[in-house]
Design brief:
The protein is an alpha/beta fold. The chain is built from five helices and seven strands. It has one domain: Rossmann fold, CATH 3.40.50.
Length: 195
């Protein structure tokens, strides 16, 4: 996969299919780790005629943080601190150029977010693309208490051997939260509330 394409087209198709499934579910749509906003724009294009749903984007815009031991991989040598840096302004300008509704853009490290003040009160769909163990672990902790029944969480890089922390965080979460279950598609983990 080219370095400038962070989510493969096949994964985008799965993502959009699952997003559409949540149109009638209460709550807003969130993306943790929006990078340059390419996937965010695809989400917004689907949502543009939806009533009363907002898109919330979260990113440090500082690039990748340091890896922890959970993220170490022989395949992951290319992922270095500061890599994948972008700007909130460039993301916002993509929405303006395409005449899409402006999202809520929050510039912060995920562990700095206030779950009550910085997130919507209800979430119907979440894309978690934080790459590393701590980012995915923190994102899940923020999103799951607000996930509506019928909502979906998609975690990117679940099967990416270069980023093993993503799968580790998901698997630990599922072990400790039996009220959620995992559906898998491609390199994505799809998490839903159990029936």
């Amino acid at each position: 996969m080219p370095r400038d394409l962070q989510i493969a087209e096949r994964e985008v198709a799965i993502l959009i299919e699952n997003l559409i499934d949540t149109e009638d579910v209460s709550g807003d749509v969130v993306e943790f780790g929006c990078y340059m906003g390419d996937t965010s724009v695809k989400i917004a294009e689907v949502m543009k005629n939806w009533q009363e749903k907002w898109l919330w984007l979260y990113d440090s815009f500082e690039g990748l943080p340091e890896k922890t031991i959970e993220d170490k991989s022989g395949d992951g040598w290319a992922f270095r601190p500061g890599e994948l840096k972008a700007s909130a302004e460039s993301v916002a300008s993509k929405f303006k150029k395409l005449s899409l509704p402006e999202p809520v853009i929050m510039k912060a490290w995920f562990n700095e977010l206030d779950p009550n003040g910085d997130l919507p009160s209800q979430i119907s769909f979440a894309l978690l693309d934080g790459d590393y163990y701590e980012s995915i672990k923190t994102s899940l902790k923020l999103v799951t208490p607000k996930l509506s029944r019928g909502g979906k969480i998609i975690v990117h890089d679940y099967r990416n051997s270069a980023l093993p922390g993503s799968a580790k965080a998901v698997n630990e979460f599922l072990e400790n939260n039996p009220n959620f279950h995992l559906r898998q598609a491609s390199g994505l983990a799809i998490i839903e509330l159990a029936d």
